[in-house]
Each structure stands twice: as structure tokens, then as C-alpha cells.
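Regression test attached.
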Amino acid sequence: METLIIMLIGILVAVATYLILSRNIIRIILGTAVFSHAVHLLILTMGGLKQGNVPLLKEADAPYADALPQALILTAIVISFAVTAFILVLAYRTYQDVGTEDLDELRGPKNE
Amino acid sequence: MNNLIVLPLIIPIMVGIILVFLRPYVKLQRAISLITMIGITGVSVFVLNRVQTDGIIRLDFAGWQPPFGILFVADSFAMLLVLTASIVTAICLIYAFSSIGDKHEKMYFYPFVLFLVAGVNGSFLTGDLFNLFVCFEVMLLASYVLITLGGTKPQLRESIKYVVINVLASWFFLVALAYLYGTVGTLNMAHISERVAEEGQGPLLTTISILFLIVFSLKAGLLLFFWLPGSYSVPPTAVAALFGALLTKVGIYALFRTFTLIFYHDPLISQTLIGIMAGITLIVGCIGAIAFKDVRLIVSYNVVIAVGFILIGLAVGTETSIAGSIYYIIHDMIAKAMLFLLAGTMIYLTGKSKIDEMSGLIRNYPLFGWMFFLVTCSLAGIPPLSGFVGKILVGQGAIESGSYILLGLAFISSIVVLYSLLRIFLNTIFGETIISLEDEKPMKMGMIIPIVLFGIATISLGLGAEFISGYVADAAHTLSNPSVYIDAVMGGDK
């Protein structure tokens, strides 16, 4: 199971890298979003998959699953959600004001 | 009493939320935010002194004993930085009152400054690596807003790069955290340190440490600083001063913490690699500081040079050099904020940003001119100003351990700093006066007062070096002996 998930993470990271390396700002943002999903899966996998019961004392028998990675992912998902929302709005504003979504044209004047 | 150490995080957040509701009352917002920062300064002085008498203080949230819960740890290093950050923010706020403009103030400027401070203080105080990530994000989200607030074209253009690079760095931080958790099974920094010491720092942990090095280098502007000069030169002056003073220092703090507490077993990474990176940072930063004619860019490249210099202290790694670095971080927060304010004021007064378009400002604004000279001397490390002590201690440490290349680079960089700032000074402040007395813009009191306050701070930090040497020595002692920190965190209840 872990190997399978790790391969999935690898594919996601490859996709994210491809998107981030393009020049279009929307693709870059989508790339960071895909990358964040890959990272969340990685945290989940690092805690070990399907090992043990629900971590509730007296309700289930030991061994228990590690609850910490899930708490970490929850935090990380919220943060990635907020950041992605912000960056999309920022990209839209930049497109409105500067009039381009191509990073090459966002470099600014040459002799600044 | 331990609950006190959460105040530098919780007060700015609570007050920031309250200020959101006080949007139309600009004067009230100003007063409340300034009082808040002064209050935090008071709290951090108190906690800093308690750390001296009682040793390292820790706060286990909700009573979860380490290593199970999240905790805050206040040692001298963290508290010194919290204290300096609070003072610098308070003074930058005073500058913002007269310069930032009504449009910003009504658009939640003060709440976001306070959220930024909360993130910075949280990063300094936390004893949990995942919590460090969260505090980083609080700080970064506030900084994203502050850098884009105003929405001029250059701001939007530069900030989108700043945001993207920081978002990527954050996800890499998470990758490093995931691997670390998979390897050692804990996130409490002291506990990680213990586990790493037990297992030995094998190839896997070394790889993880390099991942952390990359992440924190991106935040600190060590070697990977290509995003820094652009993004630090576009926001309004008060914001740029805050960024230049605080943001890179958080990355530097994280580097110091991880590479003295956790990954100190492999000198190839913690010393050689950081040394090489610091050396290249110094060289490239120096080239940048000399190459440009835009005041803001020169000032931004000076931030890069300072980062290189401070990390030479870490790369050398003796207790003396680390003490020197701590002195220099404190000095640099004050002096860089002052330098950014001076550069911004210069652009405000003349309306131009290239050094060859300005001249003879000392005739029009004598006090301003001398303040610029003061900060030039201070950054170059001329005694009795504050840069001197840090430079001499880093130099002494480098000689003790025989790192002569780094020593040479560090001191050549001081000369380049002096040259790059004197170039601004001679071109803009000395020379023919081109602004006639009728045309000159009056200097606002609200602009010169914060600059003078920073000037007083850098003089008194230089003259009063003896006074803070006790705190710095204690901080350096904790950093170079990880067992002090580990015992304080893992050693049961107090």
C-alpha cells in the first residue's frame, strides 16, 4: 500500500514540477496546488497506512493508528487552501493591472 | 507565570482582530497598535530577565507534557530576538503613522502588521517543528498582504514572484517535516535532537538536514536570495523596513536553531556547506550592492550581505562566533530598519530613486544627512556603534577555529558595505545642492523622529554592549550546548 501511494506521490510531484516550470502564472499556481496535495499524501504515508485501530482508548484494541499525521495534514490543508485562494486573487489583480499572465513579461523594465 | 511567554504571540493576534472592527477609526488604531507593541516590549524584557534567573522557561499547552504536546520555549536567544523585533516594529509603526497614508490605514494595515509580529514572535518562541511551520505561514500570509497592499504595478509584479517562491518553500518545508517525522517519529525539537543523537546522523538524516537547509535558506536569503532585492524594494517604506529587519532574521533564527540543536553531528553540512553558501552570498551580495544605482536596490543587497555575515558565525561554530552572530542579528535588525527608513525618506523628499539624480541633501536636511552617516558607520562596524561588537566576536571566533577564508570574506564585505553606503552618501547627501530652499519638501517630524530613535538605539547598543553581554553570552551558551535546551524541555515539570 505504501509503495503504491509513494508512486502516486511521485506522479503528482512530476506533474507539479512540469506545471511550475511553465511561464503561465495560472499553471504555476495549479502546480503549487498539486504539489501541496502530494505533500499531504506524503505526510499521511510517513505515519504508516492501515496499521492498527482507531486511536480511542477503551473503544478499540491496541495497536492504534498514529493520529498525529492526520492532525498535521488538517492544518496543512487549511493553510494551503488559504494560500491558494490568496495567490489566485493576486494573480487576477496582477492580470487586470499589468495586463499579462506570462512571467517573461512580468520581469519589469530592463534597466531598473 | 510561565503563561507569560505566550503573550508575544497572543496579544498581537487578539489586538489585530479587534482592530479589524475599528476600521474607520484610524487614530484609535494607531494608538492601540503602538501601545500593544510597547506592551510586548515590556513583557519580553521581563521574560528575558526571568530566563536569566530561572533558566529556560517552557509552556506546555493544555498541560501535555513534552514530547507529546506543542510547547513554547523561551531561552535567551529567542527572547532577545522577540525583544528587538518588538522595539523595531514599534518604531516602524511611528514612521508609518506619517508616511503610509490614509488608504493603507483604512485597508487593515495595522492588523496585518500585528499578525506579522505574531508570526515572527511565534517562530522565535516555538519548541515544535510543525508549529514553526504554522508560525511561518502566519507571518508569510501577513507579509503577502502587506507587500501587495496598495496594488501599484511594480508591487503586483514583484509580489507575485515573492508569493510563489515562498509558497513553494513552504511545501518543501512540509516535505522535510514529513521525512523527519517518518524517520525519528517526533516533532518536538528537543526530542528530535535526542533521537538524532541516539541513532547517529546517517545518510537519511543528512539528506533531510539539507532539505531543511534549502528551505530556511530560501526564507533567510542565504544563497537563494534572488527573490529578495526585487520584492524588498517595492512596498511602502515602513513595510520594507519591517521586512528588511524581521523576515530574513526569522529564517536565520531557524537555521541557527536546527543546525545547533538538531543536525550538529555532521560538520560537513552544518559548517562546510553553510560556510560555502555564506561566502558566496557575501560575494554576490557585495557585487549587487556596488552594481546598482537605485537606492532601494543597494539597500536590499545590503540585507543579503548581512545574512551572509551572520551565517559565517554559524559556519565557524565556536561559542564566541555564535555570540558575535547574535550581537550582529540584534544590531542588524535595528540598523537595517533605520537604513530602509532613510532610503525611503530620501525617495519621499526628492521624488527620485537613482543616486545620480539627487545631490546635496545635507544643506536642506542636516539632521537627516548625519543620521545617514551614522548608519553607514554602524553597518561598517566602526566603534563605538553597534556593528563593532558583533564583527569583532565573529572575527575572533573565525581566528580561533582557523577559518581564514571566511574571516577574509567577512571583513572585505564590511569594506564593501562601507563603500556602497558612502557612495549613496557622497552622491546624494554631499555635493552640490540642487533643491532650492523654496522647492524643498518640509521634513515631517513623524519621519525624522523614528530615524533618530533608531540612531539612538544603535549608539546605545554599541556603548551598552557590556550591559547586554550577559544575555548574549547565555544565549550563545545555550546554542553551543544543546543539552541545556534539551534538559530544560525534556526534564519534567518545574
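Expected vs. actual: identical. Chain A is about 65% helix and 0% strand.
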